[in-house]
Design a protein that fits this description.
The chain has helices at 14-23, 31-45, 74-85, 95-110, 118-129, 148-158, 174-181, 192-195, 201-231, 241-245, 250-263, 267-273, 286-289, 291-313, 337-365, 388-404, 426-459, 469-479, 492-503, 506-512; strands at residues 4-7, 26-29, 89-92, 133-134, 137-139, 163-165, 171-173, 321-322, 328-329. The protein has 520 residues and is mainly alpha-helical. The protein folds into two domains: 4-199, Fumarase C, Chain B, domain 1 (Orthogonal Bundle), CATH 1.10.275.10; 206-512, Fumarase/aspartase (Central domain) (Fumarase C, Chain A, domain 2). It has a three-stranded antiparallel sheet. Strands 1-2 form a two-stranded parallel ribbon. A two-stranded antiparallel ribbon has the order 3-5. Strand 6 (163-165) and strand 7 (171-173) form a beta hairpin. Its EC number is 4.3.1.3. It comes from Paeniglutamicibacter gangotriensis Lz1y. Keywords: Histidine metabolism, Lyase. Belongs to the PAL/histidase family.
Length: 520
């Protein structure tokens, strides 16, 4: 993890955003960024006293852009903009989302295309480094003209106004937090208020963090599917490399490779090949056999989303913008459609990934389909219910994920007296994707909990494990937190324990400790 990240005129990487948002990595502005900022500010300064109207410098905003602002009121214009636009409502947005938003805005300031003074950018960096986080409600952004309300709350903090949380999470006024950190509030000058709020920074931050989370969960999904195949006495023949070369989607290939790696050396799989288990089926159900195809399609969707995020990270999102040749031009680059679409696309993929996982869990519980295991994996079916209701929980989550897969970006609602008559709703697409990612991790946790119990019932426990080396390592990690099969116990804490093992990376680390090659 980077201890410090230098922000130049366009070199921010996805891992940088995660490091700052989640792990409080420090930031510093590079010399090239400060020089570019200073240069573009000179362009704005030359327009300050101009009688010709310039949007954001000497006019009102949005539908009020036709209003010419007197010279003596142009600094007040910027302060008024921030105060009026800091209008969010609802539940407090998580700290990591706010920090990602702030870092992305700082990155755009560092391009030198916004016209702010260097003091604005350096103060923004100081606030981030001090761990001061504006309190922002979840409602307020339509994903067009930037994430206006959320970014305005961040700008309000620079002015020493509004509620914030300090690095310890204590709620206080921004003036108090800035004073404690030795940071002087900024008095905004012409164009600066607008430059602080016109960006796709919040939705981009949520996309970057969701992408990082989904990468890890895709590997977990491959592990989980492989464990279910082993526990259900399935076959690994369908994961052969030459079969997947016939349909050479990269994501499908990677998932099939992972599943071969996880199942390599499994005595249960070898027994099945040798005919030790007398079953009439000649091929496994889709949820087992087609796992690489479904998981691989999610990987492809993620790759596309990351390509969009990579472009956005190098972009200068503002309106108006100071061009490289010194013009100040209005534009529509703040529209969140590119990000909103892929956020929604990922929500669809996440819902389907959870759906196929839940189907595998359900197969373990049905005595007609689990190949010799107790009904519901209960110790004494009838007296005990086993994992019956764990499947209900997974099913309930999957149903919710299907609802969350309904795209936000197909909606639009006019604002600003029809000046802003088509918006992206990308911010809301990001919020629902975060909820979807959480749900996916819980569904996978339930599958892992169930498959581990089934394997213990199949081979008598870890002392006589017939699992592959990789799956044995995963089962051992699970058993450090959850006991093996027995009479019914309070199940909610066990589901939560598996969820924590999933999101902490513990299970992936355990798998990779025994894998011939690290899982992709």
């Amino acid at each position: 993890m980077k201890a410090s990240i230098s922000i130049s005129t366009g070199a921010l990487q996805p891992a940088d955003v995660v490091a700052v948002a989640r792990h409080d990595a420090q930031v510093e502005l590079g010399a090239d960024a400060l020089a570019a900022i200073d240069s573009s500010r000179a362009v704005i300064d030359a327009l300050v006293n101009d009688t010709v109207p310039h949007y954001g410098v000497s006019t009102g905003f949005g539908a009020l852009a036709t209003k010419q602002i007197p010279i003596e009121l142009r600094a007040q214009l910027q302060r008024s903009l921030i105060r009026s636009h800091a209008a969010s409502s609802g539940a407090e947005v998580p700290r990591e989302v706010v920090r990602a938003l702030m870092l992305n805005r700082l990155s755009t300031l560092a391009t030198g295309r916004t016209g702010v003074r260097p003091i604005v950018a350096t103060t923004y960096a100081a606030v981030l480094n001090a761990g001061i986080t504006p309190v922002i409600g979840e409602y307020g952004s339509l994903g067009c003209s930037g994430d206006l309300a959320p970014l305005s709350h961040a700008a309000l903090t620079l002015m020493g106004e509004g509620p914030v949380r300090d690095a310890a999470g204590t709620a206080m006024e921004a003036s108090e937090a800035l004073a404690a950190a030795g940071i002087a509030p900024v008095v905004l000058a012409e164009k600066e208020g607008l430059a602080l709020v016109n960006g796709t920074d919040g939705m981009l931050g949520m996309l970057l963090m969701a992408s990082a989370d989904l990468h890890a969960l895709l590997s977990i999904a491959d592990i989980s599917a492989a464990m279910s195949i082993e526990g259900l006495l399935g076959t690994d023949a369908v994961f052969a490399a030459d079969l997947h070369a016939l349909r050479p989607h990269p994501g499908q290939r990677d998932s099939a490779t992972n599943m071969r790696t996880v199942l390599a050396g499994s005595p249960l799989i070898e027994e099945q090949k040798a005919g030790a288990h007398k079953f009439t089926r000649v091929q496994d159900a889709y949820s087992l056999r087609c796992a690489p195809q479904v998981h691989g399609a999610v990987r492809a969707t993620l790759a596309h989303a990351e390509s969009v995020a990579a472009i956005e990270l190098t972009s200068a999102i503002d309106n108006p913008v100071v061009t490289l040749d010194g013009r100040v031009e209005s534009n529509g680059n703040f529209h969140g459609a590119p990000i909103g679409y892929v956020l929604d696309f990922l929500a669809i993929a996440v819902a389907d990934l959870a759906s196929i996982s839940e189907r595998r869990t359900d197969r373990f519980l049905d005595k007609a389909r689990n190949h010799g295991l107790n009904a519901f994996l209960a110790d004494d079916p009838g007296v005990d219910s086993g994992h019956m209701i764990a499947q209900y929980t997974a099913a309930g989550i999957v149903s919710e994920l299907k609802r969350l897969a309904v795209p936000a970006s197909v909606d639009s609602i006019p604002s600003s007296a029809m000046q802003e008559d088509h918006v992206s709703m990308g911010w809301h697409a990001g919020l629902k994707l975060r909820k979807s990612i959480d749900g996916l991790a819980r569904v996978l946790a339930i599958e892992l909990l169930t498959s581990a119990r089934a394997l213990d019932m199949r081979d008598g426990g870890l002392g006589s494990s017939k699992s592959s080396p990789v799956i044995t390592a995963v089962r051992e990690a699970i058993r450090t937190k959850v006991e093996g099969p027995g009479t019914d116990r309070f199940l909610a804490p066990e589901i939560e324990a598996l969820f924590q093992l999933v999101v902490s990376g513990t299970l992936l680390t355990a798998a990779n400790s025994q894998a011939e090659v690290p899982l992709a």
